[in-house]
Specification:
Layout (H helix, E strand, L loop, with lengths): L6 E2 L10 H12 L10 H21 L6 E4 L2 H10 L9 E5 L4 H12 L4 E4 L9 H5 L7 E4 L13 H10 L3 E5 L9 H5 L4 E5 L10 E5 L14 H4 L7 H40 L3 E3 L9 E6 L9 H10 L2 E2 L1 E2 L1 E4 L2 E4 L1 H5 L4 H4 L2 E5 L6 H19 L5
Parallel strand pairs: 1-11, 3-4, 3-5, 5-6, 6-7
Antiparallel strand pairs: 2-8, 7-8, 9-10, 10-15, 12-15, 13-14
Helix pairs in contact: 1-9, 2-9, 3-4, 9-13, 10-13
Length: 389
Amino acid sequence: MKKIGSIYLDYAATAPPDPRVLDAITPFVSEYYGNPSSLHGPGRKARHAVEDARERVAACLGTDPGEVIFTSGGTEADNMALMSVSGSGGYSGLITSESEHEAVRQTAIYLKEQGVDVTIVDPDGQGGVDADSIKRHLGAEKPFVSVMLVNNETGAFNQISEISRAVHESGGVIHTDAVQAGPYYDLKELAAQVDFMTLSGHKMGGPKGIGVLYARSGLPIDPILHGGSQERKRRPGTENVPAIVGFSKALEISQAEHVENARRVRGLRDLLRSLLEDSLGDGIRVTTPNESAPHILHVLVLDQDGCGVDGEMLILGLDLEGVYVSSGSACTSGALEPSHVLSAMGISSSLAKGAIRFSLGRETNEDEIVQASKRICTVVSRVSAGIVA
């Protein structure tokens, strides 16, 4: 339950659970608790729930149920897809971008250390990946390409259809991390364009700890975990039945409502941008491109000298005001360092320290946006003046 008067603007980190999802999950927490691998009645009930959820997910994606692999989340699904590069797929190497989520980026770095041919292209100035930068590295062999649909920091939207076409013409395969896309895009259309796709439950109002890797039939998946035959011997471990049921429900809801969700949230995001630009003027620089995901607004808050203000103080100050947001910077070893995405975009550390990401969602409304903009401006003034509380 939200604190009265609080405004949650961190949906890109996680979305509040949809009440309809909680209703679907509850029986499988309290009543139908059997192990899906057990042969008795409670086990069969659980097995039926898992396979029914798989069919529901497949229907949303327009795929075969056998192409749906349940994982512990988006990170595991990303790892599972990319680790197949060094397995039995016969790929010539990996091509990805510097602006990918760390689940892809760090896996790419690991693969390179293991001797895999890895190419990492730089993003544009707003965190997007230009299709031509990928095309330049496509050869006559069989590349594995991984490019996210929506950048989780800036909201930049990548033209996966164009990239996918070029990859397939080269004889390669393509994976996309679509974790930020669930509530706002037609995933059936997207799945038809790619060979692997990653989704995460808690970004769509579903539970945490559950994700899906869509893997096109006929493409090998080498398990990264060992110890059981679950998920058709691709992902061992007792299935998280409540989370799987919750994921399928969240996906069904998000896909049924994605057009209206995108329209409404985009309007609210644009209102927030307008209010902040009107109030802060040169004290704010928007890094989210005009053509972007509807729910993310990424900005750099600047002081009178044109440097980034203390983003950590901004977030703490906003927290005290009941406005919950994230920073584009990450705390590493006790020092606030610019994220790899902002660094790859060419944003200096002095600017990047003022990065703030606002992300909206299902429960965000216009009154919250108006109130949040006022509180944001108040906190910016305090931090700029060196007042921390």
